[in-house]
Amino acid sequence: MDRTAGLLNVVDIEATCWEGTPPAGAVSEIIEIGLTVVDLGSRRRVGRLRIVVRPARSSVSAFCTELTGLTQAEVDGGVSFTEACRLLAREHLSGALPWASWGDYDRKQFTRQCAAARVAYPFGHRHLNAKAVFTEAYGLRKRPGMAQALALAGLPLEGRHHRGEDDAWNIAALVLDLAARGDWPDAPPDAARP
Length: 194
Hints:
194 residues; 36% helix
């Protein structure tokens, strides 16, 4: 029996950012990867991971620290982007499992940064945009932010917003809400209710 059947990786990243124009030569780089493993069959969150990533071409601004809580000192102690991608592939089967994020930003940032760093893309081709699924399932005209979606679904925001590990955990709760409603594309129809 396949132990990975019904598993989904929910990913949320935080990246270096600035209020206004970035400093000369600086590019937005991933500084935190949050990952929550969802078992769609049992309708539970079964794993949680946080990877702090050391940026190579930018620094953490005061604006970024205010938004995410991440400091330059903290990310200086992180792993390289290359090692983070290897860790995702080796220990979290990111290339084999489908994955989801809130919108397409995370997927596009990984694509850009992998190309720039000449690092193998750690994910497979089965990406689901949880924001688009939620918007359609709830019959909304505009795509909501994650915090707004949690409120609409009647779910609490757990942890700190704009912290990758906590946001992945919260997005996973939204995925499970959608699965319980029968609106998540990869959820088995006979999955046990939470």
